[in-house]
Structure formats: C-alpha cells, structure tokens
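Give me structure tokens for this 565-residue protein.
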Amino acid sequence: MTPTGTDSPSSARPRPSASASTRETLTSLVIAFAMAFIFRGFVLEAFIIPTGSMAPTLLGAHMKFRSPQTGTDFDVGPWFYFNDQEHLPPLPVQGSPQHPVIVHDPMSGPPPAPGRSRSGITSQHVSVPREAGDRIFVLKYVEPIYRPQRFDVSVFKNPTQPEENYIKRLLGLPGEQVALVDGDVFFRDAAQASNADNPWSGPGWQIARKPRRMQRDLWYTLFDSAHAPHTHVADYRSPWRASSNRSEWTIGRTRVYRYEGDAPTAIFWDTDNWPIDDYLAYNQTRQLMTRGGAPPRFPVSDLRMRLGVGFEREGGEVRAKLTARGHEFAADITQDRARLLMRPEGEADWITLDSAELSSPLRPGRVTNIEFWHVDQTLWLFIDGRKVAGGKDRGAYHWNPSERIAFVTGRRLDDLLADAGNPFTRSVNGRMANYREAQPSWEFSGGPFTLHRVALDRDLYFRAADYQSSNHSMAGEPALATHPANTPTLGPDQFFVAGDNSAASLDGRLWDEADAWLLDAFPHAGVGVVPREVMIGKAFFVYFPSLQSRGGVPVPDAGRMRFIR
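Here you go.
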C-alpha cells in the first residue's frame, strides 16, 4: 500500500527526452554567457599592468631581487627589450655575462646619483627572469550609482591613443581647479578659479588629504634599521647619527641602537650623505646604473618617522621632530600626555595642534612602538598601532599653494615668478635647488634605552615637470598643474590623473592634445585631461600577482594578493 501524499513508482514523473535536456543545457549556457558578458561589460573586468608608472603600488613588467645581506625584497623595471627598443616588450630573460643587470640594495646605502660615488651593496646578475605585471580586477564606474572618487586608482582609455587602456591615480575631479605643489595635490571650486598671473594665491584652495587606511598602504620605506646588513659591508653606514653623548651610543652596523647614558640625548638623519628624496628603487634603469644618467630628484617632506623604544626605568620621554618647509613639527610623549606641535623656525613658542592624556605609555621593561606622520599638511601620532592624537580634524594646518611654495623655498612666489628667464626652470616648483630639505630627529630623556626598527618612510610625490618633447604642442612650457601659468580648471566632464611613480609616468601632467577622433566625439577632451566618457572603472584587487620560483616551479606571489588603495 502506498502512503498518502507520495507517488508510487508507477505514477513517477516521466524522464525528459534527450532533445529537451539538450535544449535546457543550451539555454543555461546561453544565459550564463550572457550574464558573464553583462557582468564584464557593466560590473567587473580583469586587466594586466604592463608598465611601472604605478610602482610600487602596482607592478608592471619587472625583475625581483632579494638582498642576502639585508633581507630586503625589491623590484626593478626591465633593462633589456626586443631590438633594444623600449616601446617593444621586454626580453623574458634579463642580463647576460657581457651585459649583466646591476642593482643597488636600497636599504644598504644612499641611492645612486650623478656626481656621487656609490655606497652600500651593489650586485650584478645574469639570466634574471622577467616577471609579468600584476593582474587586477576593475570595478566599473556606473553613474550615477558608482562615481569616480579622488585618489581612486582608475583605468581609462588613453586620450592620446584611445585603443590603449591606461591606469593612474585620480587627482582632480570635475568642476575643480587643480595644482600639484611640492608633491601634494591642491584643489578649489572652479567658481573661484582665477586668470590672474598667480592663481595659486587666491582664496578657496584646499589640500587633498588621503584617507588614513590608504595612506598606511602608500608609505614607501627609505630606511629601516631592521634591515642592517648581517655581516660587515665596507660602505654601509646608518643614516642616523647621534647629535650628543656620542660615546654612549651604539649606532650603525647593528639592527638595534642603544644608549647607555642617563642625560638627555638625540639622534638625527644625516641628509648630507643620505638625501630624503623621491627616488624609487624600481627606477634603477640601465642608463642610471651603467652611465650615471638620472632625472633630477626632489626633496620630500611628507614623511613617517617610526621606531620602538624600550626604557629601562621610569620617567622616559620622547620627542619626534621634523624640520621642514621653514617650520618645526613635533610629537611629544611623556608619562601622562601626548602633544602635536608646530612653530616657524627660529621662534620660541610652539603651537599645540592636538593633545591627549595617556596612561604610562613608555613603561619600562617593554618596547613601545611610535609612529609620527607629517603628510598632506596634517600631523598624526600613533602609539602601539593606535591613533592617540592628530588627524584631519585635529592635526591639520592650512596653507594655500602660494604659501606652500614660499615656505618650502624660503621665497615669496611672486618674487620667484618675477625672476628673469624661464620662470619654470629657474624657480617655483620644478627645480630641486629651490627646496629646503627635511631634517628628521628624535630626542630622548630618561636613559638607558634601546631603539628597534628605527625607520623613515615617504609619501607619494607628484613631481613638477615641463613639456620636453620637441613635438609637443607646448614644448618648453611648464607641465599641466605644476605651475601657476598652467593651472587647469576642469569642466563638468573632465578628470585629472597622474601615476604614483611620478618620475616615470606619462600622465595628465605631460600628455599632448587628445586623439583627433576622440576630440571630435568629445570636444572637452582637452590637453592633459580624461573625458568622463572614457573612464572605465576603479582598480580594487590584485587577484594574480607576478610569479615567483619555488624549487624551480613558478607559483603566484600570493603574499601580494591584496586590495588596492
């Protein structure tokens, strides 16, 4: 007897015919392909990074190196190309006995520079595998649901060659006037734009400040004592020097610095022997390393100072201090309070930007990790990874582009503009000689103590340039957004972009006129701007980093799978 509510075998549903099953399968496949194409066309798409214009945030074709002395991993752009033409693909194997690849360990000494003898660790390599660029997912811009935002890493069609996809960082938005000054991004509403000889002096300018999480990902390490060489290296010297009580300090060929005294003391960065500039290890080109040719470098003042300090008794105090742009910036940490301070050089009184009560932050017998940020005209202080003071609301100071130039050069912008000759190459924003270098230092009281992981990092630096190609329609003029005479005001459908690797990026600063077809279709595709219609989307995830060899087997570098900021 068949239970109520169930089908007996004789009443079971008949099996579908073979032709019906085939139709259902084909229908499912068609729907799946249609959904895939719709998803790819309107939601998500994969790209591969070809060049190093966004290094080190994203890597194009490159070579990987690891220093056996310092343990530093670093990447360098390709040296050798098919037919020795850099517009052709790089060779799959780089370096030969006759023409080796020569690289400098960036953590072992000052980077190579014209007119200066090399120091630190330089090594030669042959048969180096050329790694492919990062593979990324791009989330499509679907307006008005998902719009481009400042500091997005954006993919778009190259306005000068629309058949190419480009990737850069989005710096200027529609309806803004934009300026790149001393490496940072300034903007104001287009309604306040001016055609004056010096628009950088007008009202309404703001500095573009990056979100904290993004900023943490963008720091580029210039030095870290944790990477001191394992064994003796003749040319190696730490960039940190004791300014007082030198006989009681152990600094240099060691990863942990120690102070044995009990009097107040300090260490400072030796800028004469290790400049703080926008050098990037990725840009160790064949021309630089074999012929000494290199583009100029610009001093950087947006820095992160960090260390771990271990006091041996109560009462220890620490001050992180940065002298930059004609001012002193400091973070004071005592047993019960932290303060963020600034003052013009030469003045006695400090201005307190922010302060916070603490509970024994420098307890003896443990290592306290301190980070002091000076970035985007903002001070931050972190202790053991937790923000204790500063930030965009409480640690910011406010200068317009004209004031920024005056403070970093020591001369009024109007005076610089009035200089005889070309106002760009002789003054303002495009010559390293105009800039006063930053000077970091640490001050301590309450020794003895030890210092661990004493490090200095720099921010992205969007450098000034000029139109150098003789074929450029504005040859010899200052590049877009880098000079008061060429300060763009973006229309309602225009964006301004630049590469993170500013010294090796062809971007909105340097593009010529848009392709004729693009300009005909979109008349607002002007020099150096990206029209809204060719914006594709935001790069948000590295899903397949470059391969690395594990026992002779190439495997993805899974440690570089990450969200992109």
